Amino acid sequence: MESITTKQRVLNFPVTRIILGFLACFITFILAQQFASKMLDLTPLNRDFRNLVKGIIVSALLISAYVFFFRKYEKREVTEFSSKGAIKYIITGMLLGAILQSLTILIIFINGSFKIVSINPISNMIIPFTIAFTVAIFEEILIRGIIFRIIEEKLGSYISLIISAIIFGALHLSNPSSTPISALCVALEAGLLIGLAYIYTRSLWFPIAIHFAWNFMQSGIFGAVTSGNDQTTGLLTTKIVGSELITGGDFGPEGSIQAIIFCLLASIILLQLSKDKLIKPKWRNKSFEVDSIIISKKI
Prior knowledge:
The chain crosses the membrane at residues 12-32, 52-69, 89-110, 122-143, 155-174, 180-199, 204-225, 255-274. This is CPBP family intramembrane metalloprotease. GO terms for molecular function: endopeptidase activity; metallopeptidase activity. Keywords: Hydrolase, Membrane, Metalloprotease, Protease, Transmembrane, Transmembrane helix. The protein is mainly alpha-helical and 299 residues long. The chain has 2 domains: 1-77, no CATH class; 83-280, no CATH class. It has 11 helices and 2 strands; from the N terminus they run H-H-H-H-E-H-H-H-H-E-H-H-H. It has a two-stranded antiparallel sheet. Helix 4 (86-110) runs parallel beside helix 8 and helix 5 runs antiparallel to helix 8 (205-221).
């Protein structure tokens, strides 16, 4: 029986895997942006289309880097980016994200706090579309693909859900107009919902699609502020004013009470559907193995 060396123990340690995975993805992201920017500056494309193509290039290279790195590092097939079922997960995820965001906005509209100022050209959606899919891919790779997945292997699904949701919410504290309450909203909505979306499919395409559709509908279609960031010009120019409980205030609709309710309801449904896909903490599995050995010896 081969003994595990100290080097192997260090490399297999969850924190090491998370740090090295982060470094590989961050370096790829930065270098890909610089490469794409220099290449596209030589083209006659306007700024919006340059950003769109840049987003596609950066996202493709980021996914490729993740797949290549973890295939070599963990010596496995990276099934979370498998093409099998990808189209189904993308379409379903986009529908779910779009419906949840539309329901959130609908409550704001019913409350009389949503006013359409103008309807803009379709080309106005290019920038929010680009931002939405680039952010969704980048954040889901880091949070669900690296942090959640690796922690889940050791501590189980429930603990990993809580930890990754807290981290995801805390990351939004650096956003403009963010508060501890708005960060908690993000943790409860997206942190739990998207983590469960990954558990249910064991694919990153589903979480990415939900994340993308939620953000794009919010900024690209409804013209609302997203996570406290500057309002971008989308299909609609809108004015959202009223109770912060319903509108989310300066942080945007995802800071509203109805967003929490709708996303938690979706999370509960996904949890019920994922019951047989939850992973137990490793120490519980070891305890079970020990108990089984003792029982077998007695028999």
